[in-house]
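Researcher: Please translate sequence to structure tokens.
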Amino acid sequence: MDAKQLVKNPYFQAGLLVILLILYLFSPNDSFRLVFGFLVAAAMVGLVVYEMKEGVKDRGIKHELKDTLIALGIALAFWFSLQFILNTSSPISAVVTCSMLPNLQRGDFAIVQNAPISAYSIDLTETEFQQLLGPAEFSANGTNYSTKGSLYSYCIVTRDFFCSDFGANPSNYAETRGPFTFHYSACAIDIKDKGKVSEPCVTSVSFKGNEYPVKLTNDVIVYQPDKTEIYSLYGDIIHRSYFKINVLDTGKTYYLTKGDNNQILDIQVYDYTLQKGNYPISQDKVKGKLLFKIPILGYYKLLLSGFFTEPNQCRMVLSYQYI
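Model: Translation complete:
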């Protein structure tokens, strides 16, 4: 078999893509990941271009165009069939980050279905909902403070005197946003090659006298953040639902979510450099809930989209000792 026949062999093509992905997955650092990630993406594009070029040479442009249109038609029919069966515009989504470890891995394909979502269900008035959108308020040494996002986000970028105490004794702190109180505790984080450390994390939220602990059996949902939000930089977000909020005055529904491997809820995240945070997720932004996952295959989509490097969060896994 000559080189041309070898490249055209589907087993060779599949084997090449598998080997390059394995080299990417076992890369020791981001420099190697950049190289092998680029090679995976280049190989995918290159093989498609090569097949089309050879098809034009062997059968003519009309025949190759016909085959290409047929292939596209089959792919679109498959996609639209999934949309119809699963009742969602985005039936397949790739996991980009490690915010859902250990339950979802980076590179998993999430199969999504539009169906009722399991979460703590609460009712709010429009006034209470607007209060939820306001600043986080907390007390330290008898002094009241107000900040964007959360106490946790604030202490990441500042060295105020209370931040060191917050890190050492998180259970002494809580923050409020309207009728909600976010309670912190010490959570264990297992860091690769370093062992376990302790960090503040939210383990429960109080609302009108009732306490709602982090519940890892609630449904995982896929949603599209608004372009003004910090999470819009990552595309669709796959996080676990925490609260389902029914706004009585307007009849609208919103969700509060949290990544299993994140210390705080999405609404508490705030980037002081970019001056961006997140908001409650409106029902129209929700694409569905996780039905099941397909490991590893999502990497091909990530690498084709240019997500070559691995987030630092992939080296750590958070565990809730108080649940």
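Researcher: Any highlights?
Model: Helices lie at 3-8, 10-25, 30-59, 61-86, 126-132, 151-157, 161-168, 298-304.
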